[in-house]
Amino acid sequence: MTKGKDTKSTILSAALTTVSQEGLEGLSFGKLAQNVGLSKSGLFAHFNSLENLQIAVIQTAVDIFIEKVIAPALKQPRGEPRICAFSNNIFEWGKTFPGGCPFVSMATEMDDKPGPVRDFLVSTQKDFLSVLANAAQIAIEEGHFRKNLNTQQFAYDFYSIILGYHHFHRLLNDTQAKSYYQNAFTALINNSH
After folding, report:
1. In CATH, what number is assigned to the domain containing residue 152?
2. Residue 24 near residue 57, CB atoms below 8 Å
């Protein structure tokens, strides 16, 4: 990796930590430059605009999500075992950042702010929902789930459980959040048979 790529990686890592705690609006070139020990103009030269920085941060989050959640799950047997691996890996993902899942933070913040940053975030979330629906379809093909299962509904329900867990764990500080999540996920799997 070149020095420029190392620097950019360091910047994006620090930016993603900020986003997990303060959202995309918490990013500023000045504050980020101070955090990574660069001049504001040096930092700006890597991205040329705050919008480009925000999109790069989202892409970095996607890359880490694929590395920590998707890729390990894809090594599991097709069907239900893979879906269970997605579920288990989500908890490790949530521990990656001090503010919890940055996608939840960004989604809440960007849901009513049109533009390229929101559009890119929406596309990443739709991609994840497609992964979940596809995993459910494979579980049907493997004979793990019933043939008439609505895979889009499955993806919606699975993602809703994830969002509920984040809300109960992070905002409500509910000590039963993980147990609630596991119960809801088990019910989702049982209802899919």
Report:
1. 1.10.357.10
2. yes
DSSP 116-159: HHHHHHHHHHHHHHHHHHHHHHHHHHTTSS-TT--HHHHHHHHH
Structural domains of the chain, count? 1
175, part of any domain = yes
User: Residue 13: inside a domain, yes or no?
Assistant: no
Q: Is 49 exposed, middle or buried (0-12, 13-18, 19+ CB in 10 A)?
A: exposed
Query: Which two three-digit tokens encode residue 9?
Result: 């990686």
Give kind and range of the element (H or E) at residue 99.
Answer: none
List the domain range (segments joined by +) for residue 76: 58-192
Q: How many C-beta atoms lie closer than 10 Å to residue 143's C-beta?
A: 10
Residue 168, domain member (yes or no): yes
Structural domain includes residue 171 = yes
Convert the pLDDT of each residue in 16-74 to its tens digit: 999 988 889 889 898 899 989 888 888 888 899 999 999 999 999 999 999 999 999 99
